[in-house]
Structure prediction request, 375 residues.
Amino acid sequence: MEDKELFFALLNTPSVTPQDGGLLAFISDYLPEFTAKRIDVGEVKNLFLYKKFGDGPHFCFAGHVDVVPPGDGWESDPFEPFEKDGFVYARGAQDMKSGICAIIQTCKDLKHFNGTLSILLTSDEEGEAKNGTAKVVEILKNENFLPDYALIAEPTCIRNFGDTIKIGRRGSINGKIEIRGVQGHVAYPQNAKNPIHQIASILPKLAEHRLDDGDDIFEPSTLIITDIKAGEGVTNVTPKTLTLMFNVRNSPRIKIEDVERYIRSNFGLLYMVNNPGKDKLDFDLELKESAKPFVTDKASILIAHLSRSIETITGFVPEISAGGGTSDARFFAEHGVSIVEFGVLNDTIHAANERCYLTHLYDLIKVFRELLTKF
Prediction:
């Protein structure tokens, strides 16, 4: 298949998480020279392909074939790719079937490589991500077949194709605080303990609080309040409890213990300082770490080779970043694999009328081919 034909075939196949739409079987058949290993877990589909060319390093391309639901507001069928003004419109055009297409074509055409080349694909990245890449990487570790280097073709560029690669990701810590008060009649506040009033004076100390100052790679680890619920939906009863939810996207400098320490040591204290003479704040705290932060050493030859390959093809010297949400790269990093992410523009992912420049797809293939020559 030509590049565009393959891209359209991928986009034309609905594959909303955790379904793959048969794409992993299609890709396995498309690369018959690679040894294929299916590692399906429940509804989640996983595929690991590999081929040994020589005795050099093991390099792995990785990605996901699943996409988020299309939603409303599309000007065309989200699963019938539509070409207009140099763009291809379809769900997954940027996130990340352009990257999958570039990986497949690069490996299909490769004749020489100094080492082992592999591909890890899953249908479980946009969901809980428990039975996808994480499971496969664990199996590879147990089989002593972890790659030395890996690249996930997630969309990373901001303004121009080639301007950004990601060498790390922030972690994610979710928190819930429940404040207990005493319900009462609104006309007799002295007989109640209103948790909304209790927390009102200290919200400014929590909202957007920076737990660190960030650095040249990571943005500050900031506490973001995401939800506050209290009350019975009426105007004459003060609430008994208030639930506040928050998230911290943290750099490697901040751990879940640091967040807990800040909340427990300062939350109640701030209330006492701002409300002298009042009862101590009665609250429970729940914290859950859904993703750990990581960063690949900036001295890694993978970053150097990829940067030079991008500059060769695009003329841009890419900036290195660790911004955005989480990705499957964290599962490689947990096992010490040197990993980066690079793909097309990231400006319409998960949105209606998601689109990708065709020229960016073609250049992504060129970058990947150039990169492999350097290994």
In short: The domain at 171-291 is CATH 3.30.70.360 (Alpha-Beta Plaits). Residues 174 and 247 are 5 Å apart (CA to CA). The chain has two domains: 3-169+293-373, 171-291.
